Amino acid sequence: QVLLEESGGGSVQPGGSLTLSCLITGFGLRWYGVNWYRQPPGRERELVASITSGDVDRYADSVKGRFTASRDLPKNTGFLQMKNLTLEDTAIYYCNSGAGDHYWGQGTQVTVSS
Questions:
Q1: Angle CA 112–98–93, to nearest 5
Q2: Is 112 exposed, middle or buried (0-12, 13-18, 19+ CB in 10 A)?
Q3: Are strands 3-7 and 18-25 parallel, antiparallel or unpaired?
């Protein structure tokens, strides 16, 4: 059974940091990249970061320089390190991976407020 288990969300003040984790069971992360999406309140889901199976990372302009995607193959886990968080980063964050990017995590809430 494939499962993507997210953790690490929470509430922080502007300028704060969080690191999201996406623990994968059911397939080896060695062969796949990890995509990170978010869905702000009242808005559509958007892709914010991705890292390929070759460890090439890409970012949306809105998070470039602040977010870092990575993979830990022994732990079979993807990570999204987020720094200098702003109010606009408030959203539910989802990881996505596997063949055809078919599998999704359950989502984790990130709230940035003063």
A1: 10
A2: buried
A3: antiparallel
Q: Which residues pair with 103 in a beta bridge?
A: 97
Per residue of the chain (114 residues), what is the pLDDT tens digit? Answer: 999 999 999 999 999 999 999 999 999 999 999 999 999 999 999 999 999 999 999 999 999 999 999 999 999 999 999 999 999 999 999 999 998 889 999 999 999 999
- Number of alpha carbons in the 13 Å side-chain half-sphere of residue 90: 12
Among 16, 2, 10, smallest CA distance to 92 is for: 10
Q: Is the dihedral of CA 97, 4, 40, 51 positive or negative?
A: negative
Please state, in angstroms and as integers, the Cα–Cα distance from residue 51 to each residue in 4, 28, 79, 87, following that order: 16, 15, 10, 25
